[in-house]
């Protein structure tokens, strides 16, 4: 992947005594102490990160952490005090007004918390607005706006007005309007925070579904950790204008960088955040089309396991194979296809751990983890599910207990294929 957005040492101080305020930051003074001493407010201090093309990068933090100031410096709604903001290889922070206008029109669009729809315009006219400002001819902008509405599932509402729509649908119109311009970078500042919880979750689903189709570079601002974990490829956690940690949701949950991050994430229900992909192990497989029972049994002996996941040449799931079934095939000159258990349980790689628990609790075998085309990408064992639902440090302590550790290894053995 190429770097689409690059932030280098970005700083914003509101007020006149900028240098004095920055010096106090370096001395470890709090924002409140700096305000009292200088009258200046440090919004963002020395922030650096990259955003890959096609990535959903979430910036999160509590109120006053600097996240909204940071995102507004990316399209220069707020001018930085110092630092660079590169989109592709162009420094937005140093652009002329004319060049900046072109970037805002053609490369970067923003979706705000309050929807920002014109009440006197229809859904279609609202969606066309950005194209209209750019001078796009009526027929062309209508076509692009209808495509954006269709992608957002709103085409049938194109002739209605904003006050005829629910809050969630209004926000989807705002998103469609941003996408109609076909921006390369989409900035979303607390875009869903004004919505009711159920509608908010639906919007998160819509965004993830839409991102699969359009693959934009998205920088998403939120104060909600669960939202960040749900939609972000990577997350930057901010406090008092500085970034505390950048990483995947898994990295932040399991390896917090400091006490602040640890306390921030300690109340997260891991089972409702982590997915099968996060906890799966490599699948040891047997090719049901080309391999025979002797190959299967030899692999089982080598790996010291008693069950394999059977796939075809393209790794499509075909079933599971036990040692007993392989012995039967060898004794009675059967093919592996004839003795496979085709009822092996499987889960999609984005299945939440909380949904896996009931499936695997009474299962004698591991669960096969498959992608959208039913190809095997790994296996989930009972020990991994239990570990994901407990505190990491407690789980490490438990692994020292001989009995529990043996159970985990046995499950791992059953789960692996040979």
**Tally of structural domains:** 2
Output the CATH class name of the largest domain: Alpha Beta
Largest sheet: 6 strands, mixed
- The name of the CATH topology of the largest domain is Rossmann fold
**What would you call the structural class?**
alpha/beta
What proportion strand? 15-25%
Tell me, rounded to a whole number, the average pLDDT: 84
CATH superfamily membership of the largest domain: P-loop containing nucleotide triphosphate hydrolases
Report the strand count: 16
Known CATH architecture of the largest domain: 3-Layer(aba) Sandwich
Portion of residues in helices? 40-55%
Total helices: the number is 19
Query: Which stretches are low in confidence, meaning pLDDT under 50 for 5 or more residues running?
Result: 391-418
CA-based shape: globular
Strand order of the largest sheet: 6-7-8-3-9-10
Q: What gap, in angstroms, lies between the N and C termini? A: 34 Å
* Radius of gyration, CA atoms, in whole angstroms: 26 Å
Q: How is this fold's topology laid out?
A:
Elements: E1 3-14, H1 18-26, H2 31-38, E2 41-52, E3 56-60, H3 67-74, E4 82-87, E5 90-91, H4 97-106, E6 108-111, H5 123-133, H6 138-151, H7 167-180, E7 185-189, H8 197-214, E8 217-222, H9 225-231, E9 234-239, E10 242-247, H10 249-254, H11 259-265, H12 276-279, E11 285-287, H13 293-303, E12 307-311, E13 317-322, H14 323-331, H15 336-339, E14 346-348, H16 353-361, E15 367-370, E16 376-380, H17 382-388, H18 392-398, H19 402-415
Parallel strand pairs: 3-8, 3-9, 6-7, 7-8, 11-12, 14-15
Antiparallel strand pairs: 1-2, 1-4, 4-5, 9-10, 12-13, 15-16
Helix pairs in contact: 1-2, 5-6, 5-7, 6-7, 7-8, 13-14, 16-17
């Amino acid at each position: 992947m190429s770097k689409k957005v690059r932030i280098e040492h970005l700083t914003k101080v509101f007020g006149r005594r900028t240098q004095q305020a920055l010096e106090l930051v370096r001395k470890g003074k709090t924002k409140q102490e700096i305000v009292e001493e200088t009258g200046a407010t440090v919004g963002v201090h020395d922030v650096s990160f990259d955003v890959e093309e096609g990535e959903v990068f979430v910036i999160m933090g509590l109120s006053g952490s600097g996240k909204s100031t940071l995102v507004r410096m990316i399209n220069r709604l707020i001018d930085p005090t110092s630092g660079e903001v590169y989109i592709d290889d162009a420094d937005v922070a140093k652009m002329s007004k004319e060049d900046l206008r072109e970037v805002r029109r053609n490369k970067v669009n923003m979706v705000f918390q309050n929807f920002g729809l014109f009440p006197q315009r229809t859904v279609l006219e609202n969606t066309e607005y950005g194209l209209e400002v750019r001078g796009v001819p009526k027929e062309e902008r209508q076509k692009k706006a209808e495509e954006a509405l269709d992608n957002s599932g709103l085409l049938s509402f194109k002739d209605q007005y904003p006050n005829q729509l629910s809050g969630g649908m209004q926000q989807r119109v705002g998103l469609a309007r941003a996408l109609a311009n076909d921006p390369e970078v989409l900035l979303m500042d607390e875009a869903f925070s004004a919505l009711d919880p159920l509608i908010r979750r639906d919007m998160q689903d819509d965004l993830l579904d839409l991102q699969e189709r359009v693959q934009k570079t998205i920088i998403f601002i939120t104060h909600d950790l669960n939202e960040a974990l749900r939609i972000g490829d990577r997350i930057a956690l901010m406090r008092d204008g500085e970034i505390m940690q950048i990483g995947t949701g898994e990295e932040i949950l399991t390896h917090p960088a400091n006490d602040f991050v640890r306390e921030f994430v300690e109340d997260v229900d891991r089972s409702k955040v982590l997915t099968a992909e996060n906890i799966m192990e490599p699948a040891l497989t047997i090719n049901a089309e080309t391999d025979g029972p002797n190959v299967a049994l030899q692999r089982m002996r080598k790996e010291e396991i008693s069950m394999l996941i059977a796939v075809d040449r393209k790794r499509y799931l075909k079933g599971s194979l036990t040692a007993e079934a392989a012995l039967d095939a060898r004794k009675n000159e059967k093919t592996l296809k004839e003795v496979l258990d085709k009822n092996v349980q499987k889960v999609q790689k984005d299945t939440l751990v909380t949904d896996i628990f009931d499936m695997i609790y009474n299962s004698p075998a591991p669960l096969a983890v498959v992608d959208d085309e039913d190809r095997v990408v790994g296996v989930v064992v009972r020990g991994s599910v239990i570990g994901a639902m407990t505190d990491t440090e407690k789980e490490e302590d438990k692994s020292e207990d001989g009995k529990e550790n043996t159970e985990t290894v046995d499950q791992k053995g059953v789960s692996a294929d040979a």
